[in-house]
Structure to design on (562 residues):
C-alpha cells in the first residue's frame, strides 16, 4: 500500500496522536483489563473458599468477575465516545422485563445466598426435605443436589429449601435411636426393661452415656407399648438399628417373651362366658350348637 | 536400654518372633485370642475378643491356644508383604481413645485437698513388622470396651467406657497381665468442692511401663482450678512412684508438650 492510498481513504485524518492514544487505551483495557479482572476474581474465590466455604468463594468470585467485566465494558464504550444515558434507559427497561420473566430464578438465586450465609447444612450432610432424604452433593446458585440413600439424584430449588422445614440428620455427632417395641400384656415390664438395657450394654456401638433407657408409652390395643432409646454416633445409626432389632428378636425368642401381632378379643357381653356358636343349614334347620 | 530390647524381657507373646511358611502360631491374652499365619508371602491375622467384665477374668491369662484355626466369627485378615520371612513384633499399647472411668464410690474432694485413685485400663496388642522404621500392621483390643460420649448433645468426643472402677488403693490381687494400672492424682485448688463422679483419662498421652509381670502407666496429675474447662492435666512421663523400677515399653501415642486444659469431670447435664 503506498502513501497515495492513505490519501484516498482519508486514513491520514484518523492517524492522529489522539486516536492512536485512544486505540492504545482500548487495547490496554481489553487485553490487560479483562485478564486482571479474571485474575482478581480467581484469587478472591480461592482465598474465600479456604477461609469460608467453596460456595461462598464461588459466588463472590463470580460477582467480582462480572462487575469487573461491566466496568471494563463501560470504560471501552466511554473511550469509543458512546452515549451511555440512552443505553442505561434501555437497560432499565430490559431489566424490568427480565425481572418479571425470571422471578423464579431470581428468587432461587437470592434463596441460595441466604442458604450460604445461614448454613443450615453443608455438603455431605444428610438432610430430609419433605419426603426426600439424601446426602447433599452440592449447594449451587439455583438449587441443591441430593443423592438419596437408594442412589437417586434429586434437584431441589433453593426457594423450596428456604420455604420448607429442613431436617439435618448429621449436624450433630451423636443421635438417639428410638425403637418402639410391643410386648404381650402378660409380660413383666421390669424384666423387659432389664433385658433391653443389657442388650444395649452388650452392643459396643451403643453409647454408655447418654444412657439407654426404656419408656412405657401406653396400653396399646394389642400390646404394652414401650419405647427403647439408645444413643450412638450419627454414622452408626443404620447398622446399630439393624443389630439391635435383630438381637431383641433373638433374645425375646430365647426367653419366650411374646411380641404380639395385632389381634382383637371378642366378647358377647361376658368375659368368662364362652362365645356361643350355632351352625344353621340353608333351610334354617339348626345343625349344631356349641355353647 | 531401648524400648525394642525391653519388649524381649516381657513374657510371651510380647516381643518378636518369626513365622515359617504355612505355620500358624496362636496365643491368648486375657479374653483375647489371636492367630498368625504366613501364606505365600502374606501375613494372615485373626482374633477373637470375648466380651467380659474385666474383674471377672481370673484364670491364667496367657496360654498357648491349641486350636489351629480361628472360629468362623473370627475371619482372617491379610497383608501382602515384600518379605519372605517377616519378623513380627507384638507390643502392648494403650487404647486409641480416652477412657471414662467411675470411682468405686463417687466422692467429694474438699478445697485444697488431694486424692489418688488407680484405674486399670485394658491394653491393646500392637502388631508390627520389624523393619526400619517399624511398620504397623494392626492393633487389637484385648478387651472390647463399650463406647461413650464425653461432652454435650452438640459437641464432644468419643471415649471408651471402662467397666472396672477406679479405686483408692491397688494391690497385687487386682493385677492382671493385660491391664495397666494408671495412677491419677487429683488436686482441687479451687475454692469450691469437687464432686468426683467420673474421670476422663486421656490414655493417648500416657506411656507404658512394666515391672515384674505388671504394666503401669506414668502418673496423671489433674489440677482442678474451678470450672471444668479450666482443669489442667499433666502427664509425668516417668515410672510412677508405686513402681519406680519399671521399664518403659512403649511411649505415648501422642506427645503432649504443653499442659492440657480441658474437660475431665463433667460430661452430660441431666435433663
Amino acid at each position: 500500500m503506498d502513501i497515495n492510498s492513505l490519501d484516498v481513504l482519508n486514513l491520514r485524518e484518523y492517524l492522529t496522536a489522539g486516536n492512536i492514544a485512544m486505540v492504545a487505551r482500548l487495547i490496554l483495557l481489553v487485553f490487560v483489563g479483562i485478564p486482571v479482572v479474571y485474575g482478581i476474581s480467581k484469587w478472591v474465590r480461592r482465598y474465600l473458599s479456604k477461609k469460608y466455604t467453596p460456595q461462598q468463594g464461588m459466588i463472590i468470585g463470580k460477582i467480582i468477575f462480572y462487575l469487573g467485566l461491566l466496568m471494563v465494558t463501560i470504560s471501552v464504550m466511554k473511550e469509543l465516545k458512546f452515549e451511555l444515558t440512552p443505553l442505561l434507559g434501555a437497560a432499565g427497561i430490559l431489566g424490568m422485563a427480565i425481572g418479571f420473566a425470571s422471578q423464579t430464578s431470581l428468587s432461587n438465586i437470592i434463596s441460595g445466598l441466604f442458604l450460604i450465609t445461614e448454613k443450615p447444612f453443608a455438603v455431605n450432610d444428610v438432610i430430609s426435605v419433605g419426603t426426600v432424604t439424601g446426602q447433599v452433593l452440592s449447594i449451587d446458585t439455583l438449587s441443591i443436589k441430593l443423592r438419596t440413600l437408594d442412589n437417586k439424584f434429586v434437584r431441589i430449588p433453593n426457594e423450596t429449601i428456604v420455604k420448607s422445614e429442613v431436617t439435618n440428620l448429621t449436624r450433630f455427632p451423636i443421635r438417639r435411636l428410638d425403637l418402639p417395641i410391643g410386648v404381650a400384656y402378660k409380660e413383666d415390664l421390669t424384666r423387659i426393661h432389664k433385658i433391653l438395657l443389657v442388650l444395649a450394654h452388650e452392643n459396643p456401638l451403643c453409647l454408655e452415656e447418654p444412657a439407654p433407657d426404656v419408656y412405657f408409652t401406653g396400653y396399646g390395643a394389642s400390646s404394652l407399648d414401650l419405647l427403647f432409646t439408645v444413643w450412638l454416633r450419627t454414622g452408626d445409626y443404620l447398622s446399630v438399628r439393624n443389630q439391635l432389632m435383630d438381637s431383641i428378636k433373638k433374645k425375646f425368642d430365647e426367653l419366650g417373651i411374646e411380641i404380639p401381632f395385632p389381634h382383637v378379643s371378642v366378647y358377647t357381653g361376658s368375659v368368662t362366658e364362652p362365645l356361643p356358636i350355632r351352625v344353621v343349614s340353608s333351610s334354617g334347620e339348626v345343625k349344631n350348637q356349641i355353647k | 536400654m531401648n524400648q525394642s530390647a525391653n519388649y524381649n524381657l516381657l513374657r510371651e507373646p510380647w516381643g518378636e518372633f518369626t513365622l515359617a511358611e504355612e505355620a500358624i502360631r496362636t496365643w491368648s491374652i486375657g479374653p483375647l485370642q489371636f492367630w498368625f499365619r504366613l501364606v505365600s508371602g502374606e501375613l494372615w491375622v485373626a482374633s477373637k475378643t470375648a466380651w467380659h467384665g474385666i474383674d471377672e477374668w481370673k484364670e491364667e491369662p496367657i496360654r498357648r491356644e491349641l486350636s489351629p484355626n480361628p472360629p468362623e466369627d473370627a475371619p482372617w485378615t491379610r497383608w501382602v508383604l515384600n518379605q519372605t520371612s517377616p519378623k513380627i513384633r507384638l507390643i502392648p499399647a494403650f487404647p486409641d481413645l480416652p477412657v471414662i472411668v467411675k470411682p468405686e464410690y463417687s466422692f467429694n474432694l474438699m478445697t485444697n485437698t488431694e486424692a489418688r485413685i488407680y484405674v486399670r485400663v485394658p491394653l491393646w496388642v500392637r502388631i508390627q513388622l520389624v523393619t526400619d522404621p517399624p511398620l504397623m500392621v494392626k492393633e487389637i483390643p484385648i478387651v472390647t470396651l463399650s463406647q461413650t460420649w464425653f461432652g454435650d448433645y452438640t459437641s464432644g468426643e468419643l471415649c471408651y467406657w471402662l467397666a472396672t472402677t477406679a479405686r483408692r488403693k491397688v494391690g497385687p490381687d487386682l493385677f492382671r497381665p493385660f491391664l495397666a494400672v494408671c495412677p491419677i492424682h487429683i488436686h482441687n485448688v479451687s475454692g469450691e468442692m469437687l464432686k468426683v463422679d467420673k474421670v476422663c483419662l486421656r490414655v493417648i498421652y500416657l506411656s507404658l511401663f512394666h515391672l515384674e509381670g505388671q504394666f503401669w502407666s506414668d502418673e496423671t496429675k489433674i489440677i482442678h482450678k474451678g470450672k471444668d474447662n479450666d482443669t489442667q492435666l499433666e502427664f509425668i512421663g516417668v515410672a510412677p512412684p508405686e513402681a519406680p523400677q519399671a521399664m518403659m515399653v512403649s511411649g505415648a501415642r501422642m506427645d503432649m508438650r504443653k499442659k492440657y486444659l480441658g474437660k475431665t469431670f463433667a460430661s452430660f447435664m441431666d435433663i
User: Anything to note?
Assistant: Residues 1-5 of chain B have pLDDT under 50 and may be disordered. Residues 118 and 183 of chain B are 5 Å apart (CA to CA). The first helix of chain B runs from residue 3 to 7.
